[in-house]
Amino acid sequence: MIDWLRIVVTMTILAIVTLVLAPVQVLALAFDWRLRRRLPRLWHRIACRMLGIRIHVHGAIDRRRPLMLAANHASWKDILVLGALADVVFIAKTEVASWPVFGTLAKLQKSIFVVREERRRTGDQVNEIASRMADGEIVVLFPEGTTSDGNRVLEVKTSLFGAAAVALPLAPEGVVHVQPVAIAYTRVQGLPMGRYHRPIAGWPGDVTLLPHLMGVLKAGALDVDVSFGETYDYRDGSNRKHLAAFVESRMRRMLLARLRGRPRHDA
Hints:
It is a single chain. This protein has about 270 residues and is an alpha/beta fold. The chain is about 45% helix and about 20% strand. The chain contains nine helices and nine strands. It has helices at about 1-30, 35-50, 75-85, 100-110, 120-135, 160-165, 200, 210-220, 240-260; strands at about 55-60, 65-70, 90-95, 110-115, 140, 175-190, 190, 220-230, 230-235. Strands 1, 2, 3, 4, 5, 6, 7, 8 and 9 form a nine-stranded mixed beta sheet that branches. The N and C termini lie far apart (about 45 Å). About 35% of the residues are buried.
């Protein structure tokens, strides 16, 4: 009974906050106010607080621009976590735009929707990503291309890293910064997350959204460790495959270190 009461209160508060902030965000998007970048962070912070997601940060977001964050992807919660830490814009697969609730929220944040299967559209998508980065926005890429179980890093896809090359001519110093990020869900209700609770961390594609969301709400308190690694400076002549390998190895190292409870000595 107490769990259900808490869930109702949480969802009610989130609905009220969304109804208050959404009209302001619509205006900010229509007139391209800088506020459009800041309001989503406020919403994400409130959402994390209400869902009981406690964020522990290791390292720091690179202050240089243009900047792309390349993060492992376990769940829709990753969006809330990274969105609560900085004013970021996400690269999302085009199907997300049609999802109930989540699709609307993604549009309000002016996410970049991509169709990875259609190579003829890749150029336009990469150009938009590069343009947003050149305008000073922090772009978040989930280079695995799908969600995992939260215990590992899947193979990184190289295609959208092409945005780094396209953004080079727009970069004031001729360099685009790509920073690996590892998101590790480590505790539930203050206790180490064992095998029984791991499904709360990850959201594989074969699990429907509503049951997973209810599992998160019932958990009440989740701890997530976010590690920011060494930045790769992508310059003229840099190799995209080398960049992808660098990002994948750093993400995997940081993720495993956090899941095993080890301190991060380096990126």
